Amino acid sequence: MAIKQLSSIEPGLEATACLLCGGDLATPVLHGPDYFMHVAGQYALVRCGRCGLVYQNPRPALGQIGRYYPQHYGSYGSAQQGLKARRGLMAAVIRRGQTARSRLLDARVPPVAGRARRLLDIGCASGLFLETMQRLPGWQVEGVELDQATAQATSARLGVPVFAGPFEQAAFQCGSFDAITLWDVLEHLHEPLSSLRSIRRLLRPGGVLFVRVPDSASYVARLCGRFWSGYDLPRHMVAFTPHTLAQMLGAAGFSQVLARYPSGSYLAALHSLRFAMDAGLPPPVAASIHRTLLHPLARAAVWLPQQLADLALGGSNIEVMVA
Ligand SMILES: [Zn+2]
Fold first, then answer.
1. What global pTM score does this model have?
2. pLDDT of 256
3. How does 289-319 read in b/e, with b if 16+ C-beta sit within 10 Å?
4. Is the N or the C terminus of the chain less surrounded, counting Cβ atoms within 10 Å?
5. Ligand 1 centroid to residue 248 C-alpha, Å
6. What is the set of domains in the chain, with CATH numbers?
7. Distance, CA 156 to ligand 1 centroid (Å)?
8. Which residues are close to ligand 1, an ion, with C-beta < 5 A?
């Protein structure tokens, strides 16, 4: 018998079977409000009794998903991936990560005689990664972005094609990409396994997928509990661990693990702490502490310990390149 965590399903939410194995036996993991965007409601994660995947159930129906992404949601995306126009430590940290990822990808996808290597970044947002890859010789890049205005702006800024909409609706040829990247995208998808299978069809034989998702088995997630920013209910449909991500990638036909990159504990800890303070402290006190934590000196003080923690303990994200 399927165990429901919430006593009733709220309007706009739908029940779902496991997004990995299709099973419908699940046990509650946690439930709570939308700590980040404050969309009204209670949301829940369950663990599949058959394969162990932790997924949101019930979850926003696909047709209702827009109401869970307020206009200012992009600010989180830009904090994670953008900040191009901003100076300072955070922008430098993010650029350093993007450069490291681009070099890993460049090293793992050997040049092809007679043509440029083709990269598709799905969920490219403001195009920071596309821009980083553009600087490397021998790459032809393009993007996919759900938000039409962002897609147009990124395409105009970089002079590269950016398809606006779900990637399955673009007329990409099978086997036409050498590399596909998914930064903070897979956990948002309603049918992640089916999407991964489609992505694999777009890759040429031997082409690589580089994917980043929050790691719910990470030390940051365990420290922060239900306030961990990587849960981001109700927008994240899955809370992956390295094990369940590997299972899903395997089910989609990917097998060989080529590289890993640790990241993310700094931003995850900062956001999670804010969610915990918002829930437990008077608003002026929480706001004051948050301002102090965002001060450049405070950021500088925690930067090195966080970098070391990422390296030693694996960060707050799973970043894995597979073929
Ligand atoms: Zn399952």
1. 0.88
2. 86
3. eeeeeeeeeebeeeeeebbebbeeebbbbbb
4. N
5. 10
6. 71-322 (3.40.50.150)
7. 42
8. 18, 20-21, 23, 48, 50-51, 53
